[in-house]
Amino acid sequence: MRNIFRNLIALIVVLTACVYVNAQIVDPIRWETSVEMDSETDGALVFKVSIDKGWHLYALQLPEGGPMPTAVTLTKTNGIVPGALTPSREPLSKFDTQFDMDLAWWDADVEFRLPFTVDNPDGYEISGTVSYQGCNDQSCLAPAKEAFDFVDGVPVATGLVDSEADAPGAEPAGLLDDLAAKWWQPVAMPQSAPVGESSWWYIFLWGFIGGLLALLTPCVWPMIPLTVSFFLKKNGSKAKSIRDATIYGASIVVIYLVLGLAITMAFGASKLNDLATNAVFNIAFFLLLVVFAVSFFGAFDIKLPSRWSNSMDGRAERTTGLISIFFMAFTLALVSFSCTGPIIGTLLVEAASMGDITGPAIGMGAFALALALPFTLFAIFPSWLKEMPRSGGWLNSVKVILGFLELALSLKFLSVADLSYGWGILDREVFLSLWIVIFILLGVYLLGKIRFSHDSPTDHVSIPRFFMALVSLGFAVYLIPGLWGAPLKATSAFVPPLYTQDFNLYSTGEYYEVDDYDEGMRLAVEMGRPVLVDFSGHGCVNCRKMEGAVFDTPEVRQMLHDSFILVKLMVDDKRQLEHPFTVSENGRTIDITTIGEKWSYLQRHKFGTNTQPYYVILNQEGLPMNSAAGYDENAVKFMEWLGSGIARYNESN
Predict the structure, then answer these.
(1) Does residue 435 lie within any of the structural domains?
(2) Is 489 within a domain?
(3) For a 10 Å CB count at each end of the chain, is N or C smaller?
(4) Which distant-in-sequence residues (6+ apart) come within 8 Å of 541 by Cβ?
């Protein structure tokens, strides 16, 4: 067994290494700028562009609502008279499926010339930036810039314009120096955006549902009548039986609550949140859930060492009173591990994404409450025991159903790793295709058309199984339009986001969106717009729900298109910074090495918070226009918040 485990870990590491090779930052469009003089007074800026195969650079003029056109902005023209920018050849005109419009682009190397005349015999200076955007058939780069600066035809070193500067807030060359120095400065927010109560209710609901599912497993269900009958026979009075059963239920709550808090405090809530987007952790958890699913299908049984449960059971027999009842509850927790383990593990990872100890406490408390409630209720109303369904083949069917659900849920963990590292191996279409197959097979199983080794023969389909099959098959049909880009708002917390969709027939309009804070601020200065900063995360469930319920509505998308520059910053982006830097925070020196760490530091440093989603509207100086916003799926309320930010921005200008 030890060798098998060692080989499994080695396989995970090898797989991770293989996929990580493809996670490097690409640079498919490269610029080389120079000055060529035809005479003492006539010359030209020459821009030579190298374009990798499969990529294209958009033309100088594009229709509104599309990608960023290629443009040259001059910031200094001392001693010269510039002309018009011209390409060496005309761009191709094609229909772009990503933007759903006819566009023009260059798909191979091209050269641009910007002629100028020198009218100052003492010398000249010309500087500026090239703005552009590149795409291939499946994805687009964020709008980018290249800086240039020449004095008498000689290039001058320019400040970095890309997102990975040597330190946050590094000042670019040109007219933005004064503004750039303010973009990273801390601000006093009118109101912070705490985790909403709806987030707590979400974790509580899933924890309670997880506890109910655990109740229906063969590990727990048979224990209910046995335990309650033990209390009723042991005690002479019904009141004492109810008291003992209540203590038993409370002990279950305490055990699972302490377990959740102990794991969280041992690793730290932030560490669990970091693990939630770690590639090795997510792939390992993906494989673990697949193993549990195969176990639920009947291939083998997973149990904790029997001496553990025997030891707890022995302690319960040797002790009396409250301690005896507590050890009985602990025995239940150990015996039921093979059924509750996957549910608890999944719940802890989801709850830890809230970023503090509150999530795991609420989730585990709700799970334990659902698990403990029947023991107390049946002790109060013992006559209900006669109405309980007896143990039988239906319990194995519950395990198989859980196996299908675990298999579907395992894909979410693989998806989180894929999104965090940008591998592109589990795009939205692939994810949905697998889910559709899984839920169709679940529906077919419920109809009795598929049988596993431990299943009992069935000569008919019961009414509950029929309706569950109806729900499973109906859900599979609901997912099918998602293959062509339907929002699928009911599943937005689980499936990959729409931007991973290769083919989208449901496009509701595009808006200006970048994934770099400094680049977004520069774009806002150029276009004269406020910035909506969206601190998000690939492993953030509430972020995906906000995107599906709010950002993908036509009204919000139109508002963003007309009035904002959206800057979406993934705080769990694991890609390496080209230029890591070091910061001092709370008396500690911290190395910022990944893109996600940079944006997480920005959120903590500038806004004093670390929860996601977190939305803030800024002007070109990096000052907030209104209070921050958090998780709230009310699209109308979000639009009102956007409107208040626009109004304040217009007043300040």
Answers:
(1) no
(2) no
(3) N
(4) 202, 350, 353, 493, 494
Distance CA(257)–CA(345), nearest Å, equals 13
236-264 tens-digit pLDDT: 566 777 777 788 778 878 887 777 677 66
- Enter the tokens of residue 234: 């042991």
**Predicted local confidence at residue 308, as pLDDT:** 46
Q: Find out whether 31 and 51 touch, Cβ atoms under 8 Å.
A: no
Nearest in space to 334 (alpha carbons), one of 326, 551, 608, 463:
326
Q: Count up the domains in the chain and report the number.
A: 3
CATH number of the domain where residue 103 is located: 2.60.40.1250
Q: Is residue 90 exposed (0-12), middle (13-18) or buried (19+ Cβ within 10 Å)? A: exposed
Q: Which token pair is 389?
A: 């369904």
Q: Which residue has the tokens 């821009």?
A: 47
Residue-wise pLDDT for 125-163, tens only, equals 898 888 887 777 655 665 566 778 888 888 875 433 333
Residue 502 to residue 497: CA distance in whole angstroms: 11
Q: Which residues contact 636 (CB under 8 A, 6 or more apart)?
A: none
Helix/strand/coil for 319 = coil
Domain membership of residue 389 as a residue range: 197-427
Omega within 30 of 0 (cis) for the link into 613? yes
Query: Tell me, what DSSP letter sits at residue 217?
Result: S
The two tokens of residue 467 are: 């309706």
Return the SS3 of 36: strand
Question: CA 362, CA 200: separation in Å to the nearest integer?
Answer: 7
Assessment of whether the complete model's pTM goes beyond 0.70: no
The angle subtended at Cα 520 by Cα 515 and Cα 522, nearest 5°, is 145
Q: How far apart are CA 355 and CA 601, in angstroms?
A: 14
Q: Which of 422, 428, 256, 271 has the alpha carbon at shortest distance from 353?
A: 271
DSSP E strands, 422-514: 513-514
